[in-house]
Design goal:
Number of domains: 2
Protein name: Molybdopterin-containing oxidoreductase II, DMSO/TMAO/BSO reductase family, monoheme c-type cytochrome
Low-confidence stretches: 5-17
Strand order of the largest sheet: 2-3-7-6-5-9
Helix content: 25-40%
Strand content: 25-35%
Mean pLDDT: 90
Largest sheet: 6 strands, antiparallel, barrel
Number of strands: 10
Structural class: alpha+beta
Number of helices: 4
Length: 185
């Protein structure tokens, strides 16, 4: 019994110290000196360590200020001030089929409002999921996995008027569908 308790504690401590959390809305990124340096976009997953955060993603060589989910799936995770990009730690580089050079990065920062992070990904998209159902008034709604993350923004722009979406709603539903499409892979 004693050994089981120790094993449970050993697994629980890293989880408490290094939790994965999701931005429930766009959040201001701060440098380690608490200066504003960018925006963490809704849905981005960060690792938290005692009040500091780490974001992992991919950046295009020469355009390091936008962090993407991957070199293939162009879901924007964050936008940074150019000066702050020098703090990125590069762990991998590669070239895609189009000749674009990519870097896999990690970057550490603080958040102005870390209380707007959630640990359950399912809490993120309730409003956007409900909005997407409007698309079913003209046609059967598509499963998110029927399109790639890169296709959804253009598709949503074509449906914007018929669904009665504002520009902000169109963007929000597009991002929701981008993340949902990853689940079908």
């Amino acid at each position: 019994m004693f050994k089981k308790g120790i094993v449970l504690i050993l697994f629980a401590i890293p989880t408490m110290l290094f939790s994965k959390e999701y931005a429930s809305k766009n959040l201001e990124i701060l440098s380690m000196k608490n200066e504003p340096v960018g925006v963490l976009y809704k849905g981005a997953k960060v690792n938290e360590n005692k009040g500091d955060f780490t974001l992992s993603g991919w950046v295009m060589d020469g355009n390091e200020y936008i962090i993407f989910y991957s070199s293939k799936d162009r879901i924007k995770l964050a936008r940074l001030e150019d000066e702050f990009t020098k703090n990125m730690k590069v762990s991998e580089t590669k070239e895609d089929v189009y000749g674009v050079k990519w870097k896999k990065i990690d970057i550490d920062f603080k958040l102005k409002n870390s209380k707007a992070l959630v640990t359950n990904e399912n809490e993120l998209w309730n409003k956007e999921e409900e909005l997407y159902q409007r698309c079913g008034s003209c046609h059967k709604t598509f499963e998110a996995y029927e399109y790639t993350p890169n296709q959804w923004p253009s598709i949503m722009k074509t449906m914007k008027t018929n669904a009665g979406f504002s520009k902000k709603e169109t963007k929000a539903v597009s991002v929701y569908l981008q993340y949902e499409s990853l689940k079908g892979k």
